[in-house]
Specification:
39% of the residues lie in helices and 13% in strands. The chain is α/β, with parallel strands linked by helices and 331 residues long. The chain has a single domain, classed as Metal-dependent hydrolases (TIM Barrel, Alpha-Beta Barrel), CATH 3.20.20.140. The strands form 2 sheets. Strands 1, 2, 3, 4, 5 and 6 form a 6-stranded parallel β-sheet that branches. The chain starts with a strand and ends with a helix.
C-alpha cells in the first residue's frame, strides 16, 4: 500500500552520520552522507521498499544554535534548502520535488517518488513577506514552533497555558491565504486552540500522538484531536518511543495501533495519517524496535486489519487522508 509520510528529519541527519558531536549541520558545509543510501531510517532505497508515494522532508531549524553560530534562521533555512535540492537532484531518476497535488500525480505517473519541502520551526519567518518567499522556494508546511518560545508562540515543552502571539495569529492567516499548511505539532495546548479558533482550512499535526495513551506534553488531548478532526485536518502518528508509551522504551507495533485506535475513536477515520519523525530522534533500544525504518511501516497493515480497520480505512491512513488535505490546501 502506497505511503505518504508527513514528517522526517533525514536532511539534517545526513550531516550527522559517521560524525560526532552536536550541531553538525552548522559546523559542516556539506553532509557526510547522502539520500541515495545511508544507515539512517530513510533513504531512496528504503523509500522504494516502503512503496512510498510522497515523503515530506523537514528542514529543522534550531534557533538556539543559529544564535550560537551567528547565522540567521533564514540563512540557515536557505542552506538546508539548497542541500535538499542538491540531494534530490543527485537522485532525479528516482525522486522529484513537488509542490501540489497535480505535480504529485504527475510524478507518480512517471513512477518516481515525490518529495515535499517543509520547515520545522516557524521562527525563521520574521516578517510576513517572507512567507511568500518561502512559498516560492517550495515550502508546503511550516511547524509553527519547535521547543523554544518565539515571536510566534509558545511550545508544549515550555507552557501549555500560553499560546499564539499576535504575529503567530497573523502568520496563520497569511499561510492559509497562500496555501501553506499550518502544522501544530510542538505547539502548546492553548496554541492549538488559538489556531483552531482562527483557521479557515484543515490544519495538520504532522507528528503527534494521543496523550490519553501516552501522557507526554507533546501528545494531543482528546479535545485537540476532535478540534483538528472538525477542521478537516489530519494527524500523523509518529514512531518516537517516548511519545508512544509511558513505560516501554521500544517502538512496538501494538503501541502504534493503540494510538491509531484511540484517535479513530475520538476523531474518526478521516483524521488518521502517518508522520514517522524518522531521523529526528534516537531510539533507546533500537535492537528491540519492531519498526526500525520507513520500509517497516508496511508492517502496520495486517495489525491494523486485525484491530478492526477496514481496507479503505487503512488506505486512508497510509495515503488518502493526506492526499485529500494536499489537494484542498496546496495551490
Amino acid at each position: 500500500m502506497q505511503l505518504i509520510d508527513l514528517h522526517a528529519d533525514t536532511l539534517t541527519s545526513l550531516y550527522y552520520e559517521m560524525s560526532a558531536g552536536k550541531n553538525q549541520e552548522f559546523k559542516l558545509n556539506t553532509p557526510v552522507s547522502n539520500l541515495t543510501a545511508n544507515t539512517l531510517a530513510i533513504d531512496v532505497a528504503k523509500l522504494k521498499q516502503a512503496d512510498s508515494l510522497a515523503q515530506f522532508f523537514v528542514l529543522w531549524l534550531n534557533l538556539q544554535a543559529c544564535k550560537e553560530y551567528k547565522i540567521s534562521p533564514w540563512e540557515h533555512f536557505l542552506k538546508l534548502h539548497h542541500e535538499l535540492i542538491n540531494q534530490i537532484s543527485l537522485n532525479n531518476n528516482s525522486i522529484s520535488l513537488v509542490q501540489n497535488y497535480n505535480e504529485l500525480m504527475m510524478v507518480q505517473h512517471q513512477k518516481k517518488l515525490a518529495a515535499f519541502t517543509c520547515v520545522e520551526e516557524g521562527g525563521f519567518i520574521e516578517s510576513l513577506d517572507q512567507l511568500n518567499q518561502a512559498l516560492q522556494l517550495g515550502v508546503r508546511y511550516i511547524t509553527l514552533v519547535w521547543n523554544y518560545e518565539t515571536h510566534i508562540g509558545v511550545p508544549a515543552a515550555i507552557d501549555q497555558s500560553r499560546g499564539l502571539k499576535k504575529f503567530g495569529k497573523e502568520m496563520v492567516e497569511v499561510m492559509q491565504s497562500l496555501g501553506i499548511m499550518v502544522d501544530v505539532s510542538h505547539l502548546s495546548d492553548q496554541g492549538v486552540k488559538d489556531v483552531l479558533q482562527i483557521t479557515k482550512q484543515p490544519i495538520i499535526a504532522s507528528h503527534s500522538n494521543a496523550r490519553n495513551i501516552c501522557n507526554h506534553s507533546r501528545n494531543l488531548t482528546d479535545e485537540l484531536i476532535r478540534g483538528i478532526a472538525d477542521s478537516g485536518g489530519i494527524i500523523g502518528i509518529n514512531c518516537v518511543p517516548y511519545f508512544l508509551s509511558d513505560i516501554d522504551p521500544t517502538i512496538k507495533i501494538s503501541q502504534l495501533i493503540a494510538h491509531f485506535k484511540h484517535m479513530h475513536k475520538v476523531g474518526g477515520e478521516n483524521l488518521l495519517a502517518i508522520g514517522s519523525d524518522f531521523d529526528g530522534f534516537i531510539g533507546t533500544t533500537p535492537e528491540l524496535d519492531e519498526i526500525k525504518n520507513i520500509a517497516d511501516i508496511q508492517k502496520l497493515i495486517q495489525p491494523l486489519a486485525v484491530a478492526g480497520f477496514k481496507p479503505d480505512q487503512i488506505e486512508k491512513i497510509f495515503n488518502q487522508n493526506a492526499l485529500r488535505v494536499i489537494k484542498t490546501i496546496m495551490k
